[in-house]
Design brief:
The chain is of the alpha+beta class. The longest helix has 15 residues. It is built from four helices and six strands, in the order ααββαββββα. The protein has a single domain, classed as Nuclear Transport Factor 2, Chain: A, CATH 3.10.450.50.
């Protein structure tokens, strides 16, 4: 049985590990993604419709620019229901420069009856580029944390 928690974890695994095929397990075919980006350090389209397009934007295109991605949902996972919101933290490095990146924001999830995500709103409050010599310590710190909650 698919649950919202399982769909969220599948999305994070797909995005962080560059596995675009997993998005079809996490999102309904007609899912909608909206993005509110409150920083100039990163950009995404405001609205994306359909699991294939979401996979392209949040996995395939994202993985062309970033690697060593660790995304964490802050707090306890959803227990039941079709709506869930949580803060998130991400640590990663840029492929072209090896600079460390760290960011945070909010996820607002809405699932269909069967547990797959039908709407996701991602708010990016901050995304900071850090010096290259901080990448390894930050990524080692992230790697030592419990993934993904």
């Amino acid at each position: 049985m698919i649950t919202l928690q399982k769909s969220i974890e599948t999305y994070i695994r797909a995005k962080d590990s560059n596995r675009p095929f997993l998005i079809a397990d996490a999102f309904t075919t007609d899912a909608e993604l909206t993005m509110q980006v409150n920083t100039s350090e990163i950009s995404f389209p405001g609205t994306v419709k359909g699991a294939k397009a979401i996979s392209n934007v949040l996995v395939s295109e994202f993985s062309q620019r970033y690697e060593n991605v660790y995304t964490f949902c802050i707090g306890d996972p959803p227990v039941a229901g079709t709506a869930f919101s949580c803060d998130w933290l991400v640590c990663m490095s840029e492929k072209s420069t090896s600079l460390a990146r760290a960011g945070f924001g909010r996820y607002d999830w809405l699932a269909a009856d069967l547990g797959q995500v039908r709407q996701l709103r991602i708010t990016i409050e901050e995304m900071t580029t850090l010096p290259q010599d901080t990448a390894e310590p930050i990524l080692r710190w992230a790697d030592a944390l419990t993934y993904s909650w």
